[in-house]
Amino acid sequence: MAGWQVGQVPGAVAMILNYWPRRLRGLVATVAFVGGVILVAAMQQVRLQPNAQWTGWLLIGLFTALMSFSLRKRLSSLPIGMAATWMQWHVWMGFAAIGIFHVHVGWRLPVGGFSWVLWLLFWAVSITGIIGLILSRFLPPLLRTVGNEVIWERIPEEVVELHDEAAGIVQNNLAKSEGMVLAGFFFDRIGPWLRRPRFMWLGEGEQRIQRHFINLSRLVGDDLREAVEDLEVISREKMLLDRHYFVQGILKGWLFVHIPCATAAYAAAICHAAIELWFRS
Amino acid sequence: MSTDFHEIARPQRWDVAFDPDLTPEEVERVLSLPLFAGMDKGKFPRSMPLDGIVRNDCAVRRYGDKQMVVRQGDYGSSAFLIVSGQVRVYLEGDISDEDLGHTAVKNKSLLRQVWRSLVPPVQRAPGHLLAVSGGDERGEVLGQASIQVFFQDLPLTTKRGDPPPVMSAGTVFGEVSALGRAPRSATVVADGPCEMIEIRWQGLRDLRAYDKGFKTYVDGLYRERSLQGDHFKTLALFAELPESAHELLQQGAVFESHGSFEWSNAFKKSRKERLQNAKAAVAVEPVIAGEGGDAEWFYLIRAGFARVCHRVGAGEVTSRYLSKGGLFGESTLRAMFDGRSPRYRSTLRALGYVDIIKLPIALVAKLVKENPKAAAQLRQTGNKQDSAHDQGHQQPLQAEVMEYGTAERLYNGTSIMTIDLDRCTRCDDCVSACSRAHGGQPRFVRHGQVSLGFLFPNACMHCQDPVCMIGCPTGAISRNSDGGQVVVNDQTCIGCSTCANSCPYENIRMVERRHLGTKVVDQKSNPVVQATKCDLCYDQLGGPACVRACPHDALNRGDFAETLALTERRKGN
Amino acid sequence: MARSSDNPFSHKNSPFEYPLVSRLRRLRGRLVLLAFCSVVLGVVLAFRFSRSDLLSEGPLHSKHAFLTDNCQACHVPPVGGGHATMTDNCMRCHDHADGKGFVANPQPHGNRALVDALTADRKAKPDAQVRSGFAALVNALPGGRMHQGAHAAIACTACHQEHRGADGNLIRLTNATCQACHQNVFESFAHGHPEFTALARRERSLKFDHARHYGSLFAKNAKGKERIDREGCVACHRLPDTVEDYARSVHPVETSCLPCHQKDLYSACVTVLASQPGKDAKAPLVPQAGAFAAFALSLADPAKRPDLARIHDDGVLSALLPGMPLLSGVGEEPLAVMRTGKNGVDGVHTRLRPETWTAGRFKDDDADAEEHADKPTVLVYRTSPHADRAVVESTAWLAGLERRLRADNRLPSDWTKRSLDLLVEIGVNCPKNETDSAGCSKCHYAGVTANGVVADFARQRPALHFTRPFSHFVHWAERQHVGGTATAHGPDDCAACHASVKAPEGEAKNDPRWQDLRVHRRGHDWKTLGIADCRTCHKPDTVRQDCTTCHQYHQGAAVAAGR
């Protein structure tokens, strides 16, 4: 991934290793739980007894527990366990739900329309959850390397400040000999870019901006060197802000898929259970 | 948001007196007491006359026989002048905790807390400002007057076997807690009916400021009483020594103060210099004992903080910091035992301000040498300290954290908020949780200094030495009597920004008051603000919401030692 | 310029209003609400307007397509406190009593008595090897194996599945399903399956010594040798495609046997009807007082035999006797009319064809009527040399008659003698015992019943499945094994299973198995197939060896007929 440097990845790996005892516990517990469910289901299969109903209710229970994480976040002032603990339960119960889901439906593709909806929603939630978990473990160290810690909601405001500052520099140097050149550079090249944050890592764009400044330094005299350097500093800060905007945006954005999908999946599961109960035979 | 305004009269410091029932006659009577009568009224400014201080910052208290005046362990913010009668003084251990009636703070009910978490917030109404009536809520925070505790039986002797000391009319007590922002060191119980003048520390501060004689007297008391009490028993090195040794040490002890009591201003001003020239920043700290100098004294930190550092190249590297109970000179003692010359192997500098008790090192060496257990304790401690020093370096991370924490005075904090940036996903769940727990107003912002992969947000650290309390005119900011958290009383805060200005870490924020969405303004249409800071959720079930809200174990709160351990655990390889 | 980000928390700068719920979270909350409402609304609308298409687990099989949108047909909602099981709903249509469905008996193996007998057998062998493994472990737990009494509790859905699409597989049957009950017997076909002890030969009534014919006789006969050398087994046999084909698995006798055995065959003449001597030629012929005729007439049920009634009533010889429909004019066998004289049959008078048969009398314009007017008119049935239809059908009629009489408890005590007499009369010439080779018994073996010998070779019993008494339990698809494309044996490889058993020499001749073979030479002697023969191919990693390869669960008349 662009931006990773020597020494960063080991930091992430070290972070993972620091938590391996807890993860091992979670893994063992999840495997044991899912294994137990599979064992019971296999025993029932040996006895030609159906297992769809109880595994279905187990899934509903798991879904409810998983969804309750959102509610718990609103009640942090109550002594109902640490959010980090709930998070662990959420992750491992999510993995368990994947296993139990396949005990419930069997290892095959669905056939009916609603079954497809349930299946797709479940996998959407599961995959986005796994992706989100990976993102939440690997993106923060990356973000730390960017530096310049900033709150995401403040980035537009900060970018505007940078823009105004840059505009001020240009304004102050208009009277100088190549002041218009500087102004032209600002309005044509970096001004629009400075106006708002961009949702990108800016790998290639960074080089483009650097090239602009190299070209500019050829066109202006020594009296504007300081102004150009100031503008470069502002541009670098803007790049850092863009990176923050990008990475933090991803960190916030994946939840825009995961949580609505989870809600939809939960609603669909409840409807599915209601239909099954309605047509119980 | 509504554009209408809600106009009120701007709150003032003396809107509510310390004792609203104090009559003008009683004020005159107090002024006639020798302590006040000797003061020069002309030295007091017109905005703060002596009688104003007495009328607003003093209270007349009357106690019955065996009624508790102050309780050991409680955070106190007032001093007492005995007008008539006498009191007995009981130190720690003389009266059991149960008899002292230490009880837990009554928390909010669960239902009420759930309601506040889920229902949209209601900002603090300005009406509270005007409706202070000195009830229990206020009494817990401000003074001890509401405490009505009577002892059934009191021990006739202290733990040492002596009868408890007596203080009689004309004596001032409680100034150590009031000035030092520390818990009460003793329990004082009325021995028969007695009358006292309770001076809250704002008044004490102003009296000290404008009357030199009073300052000298009170400071002298402060020093004298700081030496009292058996400090040595709690120290591992001296715990095994016999009583006779303790008495010898007590006789040889000397009390000193170094640095500035109000260090925060200088600290804030020097921030820029500290960042640019760390070496110079360290150099301005007062030296108590210099490396390589002849060792004459053995030091015990009584209050405040000190830095232990040693020379490396042209600069100095901090090896550790010392707070109350810390010792300096142990390595020198060991050197003396080994027959080497008694020289200091490190430098001791004052951080901010520090109260020390210094003991003759020859006496300490003699007493320790005679006691095998104490000698063994000394060797055990030395193995840990010397190895790091002899190696000439510490672990790089530890050294860096130590330097940073000491430079930023993080050691002062008892609840430093750290956010591990390698784990933080910037979800702001911590801030949301704080907001929900406090009626929609978060008490911190996830922004601050970044160092070593940690973010140190501007969240109140609930310092051991809360300098924010120094200037508060109404005493709105104070320590909670139960847990020691530094909290702001919304009802009495007048928004003067003194605490916010005082806080060296900029952890206090002034926010505009709103009443149901409407901005609150004074008669000149200026917004009325008040101080907001983290209160560690002291009145909530479950403790700090921010810590509990972080789903990734990124946010932690702890003192500096815990922060150091956390850094090593998370970032160490 | 100091930016607010330098310290947004500083009271000196403009305070950063931290909203309780950020803009992003508000937006996310709205998305969540939208997702939830969409799903619920979608389900409600689907439930109302397009239930089966959208809400069902999948389309129904094409055979059940008519049940689309009729969820209640199978998924009966709880009404009035109780609810039907899925099996009850299935059996509403698939019940053998109505004859609509194809499940004659949902019970396993179709024969409760059989299952009980097996259970008793199993209980008598307490040391039967218990297969180790998961299934055995499950059975060891409380509430373990399915007991015989619980057979009724096996739901249809245990083995069948719907909603898998129009072409979906309705069956989900694996070894594990069978092993829900059978797991204590053996592990698999290759390991532990019992030997085929009751592998019976097909019940056929044809005696044929393959060893003698194939080994020596054909070699002596030039024509036969030539044919056998050229065609092999298929010179006489044809591979059956279906169960019904088993009846015709041998080429017609005319091509396979008669070329050599023409002289062994004879025909009999049976006088069935005759006119009274001296009577008017136009007088009706009356049944003869032979045992066959008299017996048949006495036992026949007039109500069910309108032919017989006609004989009684008006003498119309549209049917001569019950059991001999040929004589009523069906078929193409000409009827021989002979005149008998004192010396017996003196010749065929004419060949009577049904269309000339009028009221049992010759037509007036018959050229011979005048000449033979004084001679009794007899209707003699002359059996054809082989497989005369009348003979075949009469024997089948007798067998059926025996069953009916036995069921009604009216079987005469001398039935054996009577039936034998009848058969002799029409030339069947049944053997007296199993070793007697008189008459048809030279080649045909009449099925021996408990009460005697009844020739049942007239009708081939439907090919029974291999093992007895596991009737219908095991199916055999011969075509998969012989001929076809991916088969184990080529079309000429009959000897793999049907190798003629050569007579052993010396003491081996006294081997009981050989003796048994000689005694029970039913149909054709063929190599006794054992499980080892099947295991040459039906083993792991070779061809199928799961239970459903050979066994089937549901049994009934339709199943037996079709599979």
Strand proportion of chain A, as a percent range, falls in: under 5%
Report mean pLDDT of chain A, rounded to a whole number: 86
Largest sheet: number of strands, sense, barrel closure of chain A: none
Determine the structural class of chain A based on helices, strands and strand pairing. mainly alpha
Number of distinct helices of chain A: 9
- The oligomeric status of these chains comes to heterotrimer
Q: Point out poorly predicted stretches of chain A.
A: 1-10
Query: Total strand count of chain B, please?
Result: 25
Described by strand count, sense and barrel closure, the largest sheet of chain B is: 6 strands, antiparallel
Please state the average pLDDT score of chain B: 78
Helix content percent band of chain B: 25-40%
Helical residues, percent of chain A:
over 70%
Rg of chain A: 27 Å
CATH architecture of the largest domain in chain B: Sandwich
CATH topology of the largest domain in chain B: Jelly Rolls
End-to-end separation of chain A in angstroms reads 54 Å
Structural class designation of chain B: alpha+beta
Rough outline of chain A? elongated
Top CATH class of the largest domain in chain B: Mainly Beta
Distance between the termini of chain B: 51 Å
